């Protein structure tokens, strides 16, 4: 939506050809133009020197005469009269023609026009007694993208009908296409969480369409809204980082003419400071009562602000939003250790801020440490015994030969002589083995004899 100041329901008179001076015998058409959509039943009336002269949208002058010079206006039904425009009809040798309207940024042509039907020679153009183009055959002078400082008195000289050079002059006043824009903010002061609107105001010429005007916004020299049809820039739920120096720009899309507003300083006031979480005691031990406090300061101008607080352990909520700014651990345990943060918010506007993370380490008591040490020692001892037994169970037999003869023993004989095996055999089996050995001794004696 385009926000333009100064648009009135008023028509504009245009000439075709677009010259404010013509010679007698020449023709010209005047048209009453409306910027807004025109109803089919719209009617128009024309005035010359405040006298009603014609009804219709266009007024045509054919074979102009001196009495056609004057001030012209038109009016539509249910509209004001247009601004007055001046037509000059001349019967002299030379006229310097300029467009009826000249606005900054326009490409302007000046025409050094001699009376029809007569020969003419070289032409020279002068501005404010300074030659801007010396003698030449071209009878027109072009000014590209004219600026307001090009206003002034222009003169042309030409040789007409083989006589001495004659001259004609015209005063040109370059009008603003639109005024320097001004940026306005919807409210002041501005607090965090407010919704604010910045508006770019400008007053355009009647000869520019609303669709030709584009707007852009900058903060601290950086574009925050590119050129477009909207003259407004909105900030929803304002934050401190939205503070800064703002300007707006207005541009005519047809020729790129751009103007900037002056800077305004937009300051967003802080409702409350970022919260800080504080722990008491500083070095808590197991079994202590631990208090975490969420500290923040409220804007002194807004004592009516109500805050709520929430607490988090390792990003998991441990206390939902309520009016208490403390989180209490009545009897601290080792599992209460972790990274804690708190969050503060306004009760009605929903403005939220979260604290930095604080590491809470609950230190164990001496008895706890002793219990842990004893438990670990016992566990290691049990593991060592199990490992020892496992190694001996996996160890191969060492008595595979007869100690007297060196001959290989049977598996059962080796087991008998194996002290480890003997230690774990049942007592009945050990007795049976001893009896067998005694029964075999006499045979061994006789054999040796």
Summarize the structure.
This is Ig-like domain-containing protein. The protein has 449 residues and is mainly β.
* Terminal residue distance: 134 Å
User: How many distinct helices?
Assistant: 4
For the largest beta-sheet, the strand count, sense and barrel status come to: 5 strands, mixed
Large-scale geometry? elongated
CATH architectural designation of the largest domain: Sandwich
Low-confidence stretches: 1-7, 419-424, 441-449
Q: In total, how many beta strands?
A: 33
Report Rg: 53 Å
Would you kindly provide a written description of the structure presented here, covering whatever features stand out?
The protein folds into four domains: 12-172, Immunoglobulin-like; 182-269, Immunoglobulins (Immunoglobulin-like), CATH 2.60.40; 276-360, Immunoglobulin-like (Sandwich), CATH 2.60.40.10; 396-449, no CATH class. With 449 residues, it is mostly beta strands. A hairpin with a 2-residue loop joins strand 4 and strand 5. Helices cover 14% and strands 40% of the residues. A five-stranded mixed beta sheet has the order 2-8-7-4-5, with no helix packed on it. Strands 19, 20, 22, 23 and 24 form a five-stranded antiparallel beta sheet that branches. The chain has four helices and 33 strands. Mean pLDDT is 86; it is low at 1-7, 419-424 and 441-449. The relative contact order is 0.08.
Tell me the layout of helices and strands.
Blueprint: E1 12-16, E2 21-23, E3 28-33, E4 44-48, E5 51-55, E6 58-61, E7 70-76, E8 85-90, E9 94-97, E10 108-114, E11 120-127, E12 130-136, E13 140-143, E14 152-160, E15 165-172, E16 182-185, E17 190-191, E18 196-201, E19 213-219, E20 222-228, E21 232-235, E22 244-252, E23 258-260, E24 264-266, E25 268-269, E26 276-280, E27 290-295, E28 307-313, E29 316-322, E30 326-329, E31 338-346, E32 352-354, E33 358-360, H1 366-393, H2 411-417, H3 419-424, H4 427-448
Parallel strand pairs: 2-8, 17-25
Antiparallel strand pairs: 1-3, 3-6, 4-5, 4-7, 7-8, 9-10, 10-13, 11-12, 11-14, 14-15, 16-18, 18-21, 19-20, 19-22, 22-23, 22-24, 26-27, 27-30, 28-29, 28-31, 31-32, 31-33
């Amino acid at each position: 939506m385009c926000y333009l100041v100064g648009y009135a329901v008023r028509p504009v008179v245009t000439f075709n050809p677009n010259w404010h001076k013509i010679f007698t015998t020449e023709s010209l058409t005047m048209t009453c133009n409306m910027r807004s959509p025109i109803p089919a039943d719209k009617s128009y009336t024309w005035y010359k020197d405040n006298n009603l002269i014609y009804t219709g949208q266009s007024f045509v002058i054919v074979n102009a005469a001196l009495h056609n010079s004057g001030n012209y206006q038109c009016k539509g039904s249910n509209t004001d009269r247009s601004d007055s425009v001046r037509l000059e009809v001349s019967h002299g040798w030379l006229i310097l023609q300029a467009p009826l309207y000249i606005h900054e940024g326009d490409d302007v042509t000046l025409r050094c026009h001699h009376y029809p039907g007569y020969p003419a020679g070289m032409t020279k153009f002068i501005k404010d007694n300074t030659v801007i183009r010396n003698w030449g055959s071209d009878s027109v002078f072009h000014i590209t993208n004219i600026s307001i400082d090009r206003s002034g008195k222009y003169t042309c000289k030409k040789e007409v009908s083989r006589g001495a050079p004659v001259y004609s002059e015209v005063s040109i006043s370059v009008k603003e296409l639109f005024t320097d824009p001004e940026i306005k903010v919807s409210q002041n002061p501005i607090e965090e969480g407010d919704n604010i609107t910045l508006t770019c105001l400008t007053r355009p010429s009647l000869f520019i369409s609303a669709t030709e005007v584009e707007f852009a916004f900058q903060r601290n020299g950086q574009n925050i809204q590119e050129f477009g049809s909207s003259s407004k820039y909105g900030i929803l739920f304002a934050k401190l980082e939205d503070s800064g120096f703002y300007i707006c720009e207005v541009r005519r899309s047809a020729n790129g003419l751009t103007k900037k507003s002056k800077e305004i300083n937009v300051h967003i006031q802080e409702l409350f400071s970022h919260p800080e979480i504080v722990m008491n005691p500083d070095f808590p031990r197991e079994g202590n009562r631990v208090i975490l406090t969420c500290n923040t300061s409220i804007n002194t101008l807004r004592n009516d602000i109500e805050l709520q607080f929430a607490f988090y352990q390792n990003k998991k909520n441990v206390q939902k939003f309520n009016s208490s700014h403390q989180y209490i651990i009545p009897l601290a345990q080792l599992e209460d250790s972790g990274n804690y943060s708190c969050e503060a918010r306004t009760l009605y506007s929903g403005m939220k801020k979260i604290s930095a993370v604080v590491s809470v380490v609950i230190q164990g008591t001496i008895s706890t440490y002793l219990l842990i040490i004893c438990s670990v020692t016992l566990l290691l001892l049990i593991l060592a015994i199990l490992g020892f037994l496992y190694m001996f169970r996996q160890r191969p037999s060492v008595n595979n030969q007869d100690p007297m003869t060196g001959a290989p023993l049977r598996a059962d004989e080796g087991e008998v002589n194996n002290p480890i095996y003997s230690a774990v055999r049942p007592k009945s089996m050990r007795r049976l083995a001893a009896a067998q050995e005694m029964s075999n001794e006499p045979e061994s004696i006789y054999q040796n004899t």
